[in-house]
Amino acid sequence: MSIIIQLRQQLAAITSKFGWAALILALCVHAGVSYAGLRLFGEIPLTEFKTFIYFYFTTALTVGYGDFSPQTAGGRIFVSTWLMMGGIALLTAIIGKTTNSIIEVWRKGMKGKGTFATCTGHTVVVGWEGAISERVVELLHEDETSNDHLIVICDTVLEENPMPGKAEFIRGESLSSMALLQRAGVKGAERTLVRTGSDDLTLAVVLTINQLDPVGHVVAHFSSSETARLARSYAPKLECTSSMAIEMLVRSSQDPGSSVIINELLSVGQGATQYRLQLPDSFESTVGTLYKQLKDKHNATLIGYRADGQTQPSINPANDTLVRGGELFYIASARLGGLDSGS
């Protein structure tokens, strides 16, 4: 018996090295010869197609319910040698190869070797800064509008996905690599957030992303306001922001409580928050009329407006400012679903 077991193991080891096409072909040949052999030995009841399929797999997998079995001496010898040993080896190899393929796909995703190049409508987070980046992902999930079906973390230092179950992971040699950003699906992403911890690297990433001409919105964080302005001059379609820590410090010293207000407006999930709304092209109104309507019907406060074609929004615009399409910035306890001219 030990010789048979060793033989089966050797056969399984050999067949496990085959490719999928070779394994399927070998299985078909083995099943075909098994069918022909059963007919040759007069096991006609076992060669009825449905019965044969059932008998073949239960026997080859050593389940052996016993409801069907060969009746002739030759048939029993044939089944116990050719069908059982060959079937076990082939099916064991197929099961093992399937398991290995599933594990490999999982490991490939955990190690950042996959690709999301064809994905659209997702979010890409470029760069990883530990707790800061974890908070970014958590905030994305908290906001219902950006609670994407897919968030992709793109980094070069991480060895594996830092937030499995909450985000996917792509790893490369350089964050400014065109190939890496393409694998992350930046071109088709709905939004891309860039924060690398180095202004020089962030600038390089911004320039590369600009070349990809992404369809979604891109926002990049810089520590230096000068570098942020430089980035905006080269990539005007991308939103390049700088740290507000110093500005907030000075403003709080002049107007106590200012930093608390700013932090509250940027918070997600509690209290009033600053939001943006894309107005339909057919929308027409004035700031004064719209301000009153928003406050009366939605308890929302209009704070800024950006017309189509403008780079910077107008903060606290005059009441007689015409509103025709464009973007609206407002403060509310919840995001508005949309507006029309009669809202």
Automatic annotation (TrEMBL):
The keyword Calcium does not apply. GO terms for cellular component: plasma membrane. It is found in: Cell membrane. The keyword Ion transport applies. Its main location: membrane. InterPro entries: K_chnl_dom (IPR013099), NAD(P)-bd_dom_sf (IPR036291), RCK_N (IPR003148), Trk_Ktr_HKT_K-transport (IPR050721). Keywords: Ion channel, Ion transport, Membrane, Transmembrane, Transmembrane helix, Transport. It comes from the Bacteria. Residues 124-232 form the RCK N-terminal domain. One of its GO terms (biological process) is monoatomic ion transmembrane transport. Residues 46-101 form the Potassium channel domain. It is a multi-pass membrane protein. Gene3D superfamilies: 1.10.287.70, NAD(P)-binding Rossmann-like Domain. The chain crosses the membrane at residues 20-41, 53-70, 77-95. This is Potassium channel protein. It comes from Stutzerimonas stutzeri (Pseudomonas stutzeri).
